[in-house]
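Need tokens for this chain, all 337 residues.
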Amino acid sequence: MEPPPDPTASRPSPRTATLVLIAASIFELTASSLICGHGHCGGLPAYSVAVGTVSLTLLAPVALVLFAEPLAPQRLPDGLPHLSLLLLAWWLPASFLLTFVGPFQGLSNGYFSTIVAGAGSVQLCRANVPLIDGALSTLHEFARNAPEERSLLCMLGLSSTAVWVQAAVCASQYGDYMGVKAWAIIVGVVSFMFCAFYLLLDEAPSHRLAIASLLAAWWVQGVGFSFVPDSFTGTMNGFVSTWASAGLAFHFLRTTRITRDLAPIPSAEPDDDGFGTPTTSYHAHAADATDGFSSGFDGMGGGNSWANKAQQSPPLLPAGSLQRPTPDAFRHTDEGL
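Here are the structure tokens for all 337 residues:
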């Protein structure tokens, strides 16, 4: 009997998560410090500097325990779960604010380091907090076992939310192309509502083809605002989420199948000669015809071709019924005459 799976085997390494989080925090702090050095350091730029500084401060005792445990205080290892939760609570809102609002909206080292730091805080929390690891593992298992259509629509709902949230943030910050931002908000909200209706209503899967076609057509016109060079499309979250939503909508349409239920046609079975009306039961027979013409008929007629009949029917005379006459037989015939 195989041993039960170890629940700790799937946990990430705390040392790897700590190193990734330290590197990402240094990159984020460097990028935010350069932004503050080139202008007025207040508001979100000052907050971004504080994010990197506080993160490195909290990571110092974690690194001390993991890489130099003899030098750490005796009770410090017991505080690793608490420090991991603090880092997770610190980086999750920071990842949203710094990438959706500023100052790392566009393509930059600060953007990627912030995203990596948020993911690293999740991994560190999984490594040190069993409750968080169990909840995320259950969520991952649920998503993996869920039907593909529901997983696709959940991802489409999230990407659609990112579209209209980023468009709303840019509309409040910048005054350029307000019509484009309003268009993006409407597209994202309507797409999210389609996904929510499909996931919540029991009768929605019966109209899957119609919903998939509407979503694909909706995002065909929706990607139009991604060609306008405004503040919304200049953001990483806005541009990427727009094309990700369009790709998910078309993938949902591509995987949609039309189910056709055909009623059986009552008819008689073929007779011994291979003739008769079509039947509702079909059987696959191995083709034993010697030529391609008759083998083609085997695939259509279920193996009742003339070639198979000729091979399966018995010969006209049984074997041994015709024998060559012997000389004695002719001699007896002559004596009789």
